[in-house]
Design goal:
The protein is α/β, with parallel strands linked by helices. About 50% of the residues lie in helices and about 10% in strands. Keywords: Hydrolase, Magnesium, Metal-binding, Schiff base.
Length: about 270
């Protein structure tokens, strides 16, 4: 038997918040602020957004390791944060997140049309998230109520290592029966999610304007001029550059042209 590079794409693996639903990725970030506030520790929305894309325990752990936040924690609680404190914050975060996930569950404009188009091309649609399974169950149900369905979902606590490790993306490959990782695209709005796709050997597409990095609501984004939108795209694309995404686009609505381009590259014998 001889190896033959794939000639066309077989699957697209999408993130959820900031990619398919929740324009601006507000659901997780706001809840981090509230969970810390319950201990008397103030963190800003911008600080909460920093580690976005990681599993939520790892996200909280990363926040607690930031010197400025650790100092505020010390002043409020009386000691520097430990792993036990991280777990306690995580346990505060989870019920808040589950209770409020519906407040930020709207499907991102263009996502439904894009998923329909992908299926018309014969592509399977996988997905993964920094949310644990108990939250993803509600996210998926709310999305289905709004007409959005995928073929497979992998939550961060369903694999040994979350992002930026490739485990969630590869779990989709196995479940969907994909023959080659080079026939997959990973679409994400965070650096850990882009690195996840890169480490899995996939084509990667960074979303610059619908997710965590820009952090605007859809209405705020729509209020920008064309020039302002272009500048925002360029600014966030530069932030993503070290993770080396193959493509950077504003939102998932622009994905079809990327799929066509990657298929052409595969037919020329190129790989991610």
């Amino acid at each position: 038997m001889h190896y033959q590079s794939p000639q066309c794409l077989q699957a697209v693996i999408c993130d959820w918040a900031g990619t398919l639903v929740d324009f601006g990725s507000f659901a997780p970030t706001q809840i981090f602020v509230e969970a810390f506030a319950e201990l008397g520790v103030a963190i800003s929305l911008e600080e909460a957004r920093g580690p976005m894309g990681m599993g939520k325990w790892d996200h909280i752990h990363t926040l607690c390791n930031q010197p400025e936040i650790a100092e505020r924690f010390l002043q409020a609680v009386g000691h520097l944060p430990t792993d036990t404190d991280v777990t306690a914050l995580y346990e505060r975060f989870m019920p808040l997140q589950i209770a409020k996930i519906a407040d930020h569950s709207a499907v991102i404009p263009g996502a439904l049309d894009t998923l329909t188009w992908l299926r018309e091309q014969g592509l399977k649609i996988g997905s993964c998230s920094g949310y644990p399974a108990v939250v993803m169950e509600k996210v998926v149900a709310l999305a289905a109520d709004n007409g959005l369905k995928v073929d497979h979902v992998v939550a961060t606590d369903e694999v040994p290592n979350g992002r930026p490790h490739p485990a969630q993306a590869l779990a989709n490959v196995i479940a969907l029966g994909i023959s080659d990782v080079a026939a997959c695209i990973k679409v994400d709005d965070t650096t850990p999610g882009i690195l996840e796709g890169r480490c899995a050997g996939m084509w990667t597409v960074a979303l610059t304007c619908s997710g965590n990095a820009l952090g605007l609501s859809y209405d705020q984004y729509q209020a920008l001029s064309d020039r302002e939108r272009h500048a925002a795209h360029e600014r966030v694309a530069a932030q993503f550059a070290p993770s080396k995404p193959h493509y950077s686009i504003a939102t998932i609505a622009e994905l079809p042209s990327v799929v066509d381009d990657i298929n052409a590259r595969l037919q020329r014998g190129e790989r991610p």
